[in-house]
Amino acid sequence: MDIMEEIVLNAHNKAEYEPAHTAEHILNATMVKMFGCPRSRNAHVERKKSKCDYILEAEPTAEQVAMVEAKVNEVVAAGLDVTIDFVSREEAAAIVDLSKLPEDASQTLRIVRIGDYDACACIGAHVTNTREVGTFRIISHSFADGIWRLRWKVIQ
């Protein structure tokens, strides 16, 4: 891409709390790696508490829930840099799943990478290093009709 080319992205409709939004990326990557499921089907990420819904065949065991929390905190503690690349839709399709991309998305996409742990097309705000996230805590979870709802927060 020509450095002088102006990058045009879709407008963003809200301001995220960067530590929690970055934790959501790490959580999504952890869920994909541990359970082979898609990234969250529905997410609501806020400063005080957040929730993500995952499509799963069965409810995770207490041990698996503890493993999710431990893995997210392990990635946070690893001090991975959070970087941003601007790529064409075609280039992005080779890197990330674009199935949730809105039809009116721009031709240039912003790919947010968390070290080599995660890459995602995203226009939101993030920390620059995972150590800025704080501690990830699962508050509660429930399972119904193939959807595992995970309620969580980050503690600074």
Question: Can you walk me through this structure?
Answer:
With 156 residues, the protein is of the alpha+beta class. The chain is built from three helices and seven strands; from the N terminus they run αββαβαββββ. The strands form two sheets. It has a four-stranded antiparallel β-sheet with strand order 1-2-7-6. A three-stranded antiparallel β-sheet has the order 3-4-5. A hairpin with a 3-residue loop joins strand 4 (108-114) and strand 5. Helix 1 (18-35) packs across helix 2 (62-77). The mean pLDDT is 91.
Low-confidence stretches: none
Enumerate how many helices there are, as a single number. Answer: 3
> What class do helices, strands and sheet pairing give?
alpha+beta
Order of helices and strands: HEEHEHEEEE
Could you report the average pLDDT, rounded to the nearest whole number?
Answer: 91
**Biggest sheet character:** 4 strands, antiparallel
First-last Cα distance: 38 Å
Question: Biggest sheet, strands in spatial order?
Answer: 1-2-7-6
Percentage beta strand? 25-35%
Radius of gyration, in angstroms, nearest whole number: 16 Å
Write down how many β-strands occur, each being a DSSP E stretch of 2 or more residues. 7
The helix fraction, in percent, is 25-40%
Principal-axis shape equals globular
